[in-house]
């Protein structure tokens, strides 16, 4: 249950940021410092526990699950944490001060635990002593915990989770006796600690196609918009007090949902934004540039105002745009666009160049470039432009399919920001309602990382430790607690510059979403892996026959893909909208044939884009390769279209027109701008080794990891004192 009066007081208090800074007294500093000391102490112990986890996991003893029906010592009524909102009108609550309890990730069957979940539970099984010893100046008045990247949460003191009829039907875990589902990775304190302060704009496609339902075969009859709306509403709850946010909806038109600026992620603004999201009615077409223009203008204006007017309109830190679409942009269809596409410019290029123009404007006002994270919703959603948008703007792309949780997919951007926050200090969340019944709280949290890798890279994110403080406790100790909130914000705004190495983003993107190399301009390219030379001239733009003749006149042929590695290399010199390859459909044999070698390419080959329909139906009887990735980036094209092309010349001799001075050699000595995953194996293996699941975890039985669950009981039976009359 919420406490509207407390949340309103907090919201009003946050306005202190607009006033001159108030000097805090030493006593108040000590109070805040004592909370941060607890977090640092627990974080240090968690880091050491992870480093030495192998023997601890092998000797694992079972942990109580917070959804159990028999919780041992927690059957004792205690007063230390005060009353619980789960037991209205009752004094005290049942809590176990001898043991921490665990929660498993949503939809996890405790009888079928994954090795990674077992490892997380057992790694931190021995944390109870540090939980009990690490006390702030409030005493023991709230929870201390650690949550891992795989969704396991260990909380002290141990307490039962809400369950049964007290939980809405859509939030229950059937495998756990209808216990309330809980994912710590989506809580404000976790996101604040892992991603730090940021400006985030959600740019959401609300065209008419969003009313389509894709999940009937899975028993889900909700439309794409219903699913997206639920994810957005939940995503809004993940932002912290150091974040500045807004949302843009676009179709054939565009609308900024609240005001014309970014606003601090406080309770009242988030509530207003949620109301606006609820009023959206999808209709019309799809115009990517309209949405991106509004999104970038929000970032530009917020940065300018924060610099020139010293207004709190921006975090002055990471800039992120989350872009979701379920269709194709108007530049690639017959639909009318709000902005023209220049002559001799493709639709893909017009979108990418427009975004680059807005990035330049953003940098001109003193900001870093924005990271673009793009999502294609559904089987039919375009992946060409969204993928290339992400690749060109230090982001990542993902497809959301029926059965996927779009909230988890969209919130994954925080893992990119988290990968470079290994040196961050304690950060404070915004105020929020505690999911475990303590009312309005604020959390001090800190990310925990594995040790440095063998290649000298920062270790991977393990999870987040947190320590809650009840707002009512701060009010009692510091009646002028408005100043405390100001101090929270100042401590939370710790901007750590994020610079990714050549492999960092590729490792985070994964196999399906990795981006092609960005080669420097050159007349010719030599790929040592194939032993051949290649040309990819920017001009002239030619149809297939003209391109084929151009290559033959110079002693070559339109490039062919003989193996996966060659497709990877060719994608790096391909144009955004696609370059001709020597692949055509033969009506005589009803097959796709490589024109130089005569090899057949199956219409089920992995070279074709996901949405391709390579049936050879006229006029789509030729093929191009584009930059949407390093695999599955070949598609059928009308042979009469004029576009760029790639010529291939058999080595070892330089082809006519090429010299050593204007040839880039891609060999073992070549320094990549965007390294392919195939060259990142040492870093990948090193990071994997640093965060590897303990060998013993795979052989642990479920009963050794989680104590066998007793028969389910109601919330009142496991959490409320026995003399409580509900």
Any descriptors?
726 residues; alpha+beta; eight-stranded mixed sheet; seven-stranded mixed sheet; 21 helices; elongated; Ca_channel_alpha-2/delta
Short description:
With 726 residues, this protein is an alpha+beta fold. α7 (224-236) packs antiparallel against α8 (267-278) and α10 runs parallel beside α11. It comes from Ostreobium quekettii.
Give an account of the 3D structure.
- This protein has 726 residues and is an alpha+beta fold.
- Helix content is 29%, strand content 18%.
- The chain is built from 21 helices and 30 strands.
- The strands form 6 sheets. Strands 1, 4, 5, 6, 16, 17, 18 and 19 form an 8-stranded mixed sheet that branches. Strands 9, 10, 11, 12, 13, 14 and 15 form a 7-stranded mixed sheet that branches.
- Helix 7 (224-236) runs antiparallel to helix 8 (267-278), helix 9 runs parallel beside helix 10 (347-364) and helix 10 (347-364) runs parallel beside helix 11.
- The model is unreliable at 1-24 (pLDDT under 50).
Helices and strands, with pairings:
Elements: H1 4-13, H2 26-51, H3 53-58, E1 64-65, E2 77-78, E3 93-94, E4 101-103, H4 115-123, H5 128-133, E5 144-148, E6 153-156, E7 172-173, E8 179-180, H6 188-195, E9 198-205, H7 224-236, E10 244-250, E11 254-256, E12 263-264, H8 267-278, H9 288-308, E13 318-325, H10 347-364, E14 371-377, H11 384-391, E15 396-400, H12 406-411, H13 413-418, E16 427-428, E17 432-433, E18 440-449, E19 461-470, H14 471-477, H15 482-492, H16 504-509, E20 524-527, E21 532-535, H17 544-553, E22 557-558, H18 564-573, E23 579-586, E24 591-594, E25 600-601, E26 622-625, E27 634-637, E28 644-645, E29 647-650, E30 663-666, H19 681-690, H20 702-705, H21 715-719
Parallel strand pairs: 1-4, 9-10, 9-13, 13-14, 14-15, 20-30, 23-28
Antiparallel strand pairs: 2-3, 4-6, 5-6, 5-19, 7-8, 10-11, 10-12, 16-18, 17-18, 18-19, 20-21, 21-29, 22-29, 23-24, 23-26, 24-25, 26-27
Helix pairs in contact: 7-8, 9-10, 10-11
């Amino acid at each position: 249950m919420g406490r509207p009066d407390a949340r309103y007081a907090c919201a009003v208090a946050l306005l202190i940021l607009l006033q001159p800074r108030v000097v805090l007294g030493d006593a108040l500093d000590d109070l805040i410092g004592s909370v941060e000391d607890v977090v640092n102490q627990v974080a240090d112990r968690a880091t050491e526990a992870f480093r030495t986890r192998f023997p601890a996991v092998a000797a694992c003893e079972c942990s109580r699950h917070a959804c159990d029906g028999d919780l041992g010592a927690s059957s004792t009524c205690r007063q230390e944490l005060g009353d619980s909102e789960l037991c209205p009108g009752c004094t005290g609550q049942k809590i176990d001060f001898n043991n921490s309890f665990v929660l498993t990730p949503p939809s996890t069957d405790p009888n079928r635990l994954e090795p990674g979940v077992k490892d997380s539970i057992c790694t931190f099984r021995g944390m109870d002593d540090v939980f009990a010893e690490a006390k702030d100046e409030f005493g023991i008045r709230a929870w201390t915990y650690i949550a891992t990247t795989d969704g396991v949460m260990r909380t002290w003191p141990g307490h039962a989770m809400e369950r049964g009829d007290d939980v809405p039907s859509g939030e229950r875990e059937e495998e756990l006796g209808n216990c309330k589902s809980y994912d710590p990775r989506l809580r404000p304190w976790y996101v604040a600690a892992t991603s730090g302060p940021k400006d985030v704009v959600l740019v959401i496609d609300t065209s008419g196609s969003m009313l389509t339902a894709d999940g009937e075969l899975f028993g889900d009859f909700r439309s794409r918009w219903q699913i997206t709306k639920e994810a957005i509403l939940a995503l809004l709850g993940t932002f912290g007090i150091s974040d500045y946010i807004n949302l843009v909806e676009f179709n054939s038109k565009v609308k900024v949902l609240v005001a014309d600026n970014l606003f601090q992620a406080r309770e009242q603004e988030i509530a207003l934004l949620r109301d606006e999201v609820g009023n959206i009615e999808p209709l019309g077409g799809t115009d990517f540039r309209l949405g991106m223009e509004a999104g970038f203008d929000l970032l530009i204006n917020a940065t300018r105002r924060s610099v020139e007017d010293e207004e709190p309109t921006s975090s002055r830190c990471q800039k992120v745009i989350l872009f979701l679409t379920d269709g194709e942009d108007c530049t690639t269809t017959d639909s009318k666009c709000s902005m023209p596409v220049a002559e001799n410019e493709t639709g893909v290029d017009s979108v990418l160049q427009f975004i680059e123009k807005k990035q330049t404007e953003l940098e001109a006002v003193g900001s870093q470039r924005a990271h673009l994270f793009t999502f294609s919703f559904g089987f039919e959603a375009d992946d060409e432009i969204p993928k290339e948008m992400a690749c060109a703007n230090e982001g990542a792309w993902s497809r959301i399919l029926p059965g996927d949780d779009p909230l988890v997919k969209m919130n994954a951007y925080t893992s990119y920001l988290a990968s470079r926050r290994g040196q961050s200090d304690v950060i404070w969340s915004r105020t929020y309602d505690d999911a475990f019944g303590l009312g309005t709280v604020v959390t001090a949290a800190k990310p925990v990382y594995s040790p440095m890798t063998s290649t000298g890279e920062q270790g991977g994110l393990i999870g987040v430790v947190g320590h809650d403080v009840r707002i009512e406790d701060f009010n009692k100790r510091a009646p002028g607690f408005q100043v405390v909130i100001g101090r929270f914000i100042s401590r939370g705004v710790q901007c750590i510059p994020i610079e990714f190495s050549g492999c960092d983003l590729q490792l985070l993107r994964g196999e399906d979403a990795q981006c092609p190399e960005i080669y420097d301009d050159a007349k010719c390219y030599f790929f040592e892996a194939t032993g051949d030379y290649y040309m990819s001239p920017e001009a002239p733009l030619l149809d297939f026959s003209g391109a084929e003749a151009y290559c033959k006149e110079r002693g070559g042929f339109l490039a062919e893909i003989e193996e996966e590695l060659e497709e990877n290399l060719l994608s790096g010199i391909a144009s955004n909208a696609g370059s001709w390859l020597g692949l055509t459909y033969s009506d005589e044999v009803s097959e796709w044939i490589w024109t130089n070698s005569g090899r057949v390419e199956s219409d089920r080959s992995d070279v074709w884009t996901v949405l391709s329909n390579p049936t050879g139906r006229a006029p789509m009887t030729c093929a191009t390769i584009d930059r949407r990735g390093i695999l599955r980036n070949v598609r059928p094209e009308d042979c009469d279209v004029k576009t760029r092309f790639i010529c291939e010349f058999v080595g070892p001799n330089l082809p006519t027109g090429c010299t050593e001075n204007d040839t880039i050699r891609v060999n073992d000595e070549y320094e990549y701008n965007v390294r392919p995953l195939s060259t990142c194996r040492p870093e990948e293996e090193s990071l994997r080794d640093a965060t590897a699941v303990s060998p013993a975890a795979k052989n642990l039985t479920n009963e050794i990891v989680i104590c066998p669950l007793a028969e389910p009981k109601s919330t009142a039976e496991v959490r409320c004192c026995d003399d409580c009359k509900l």
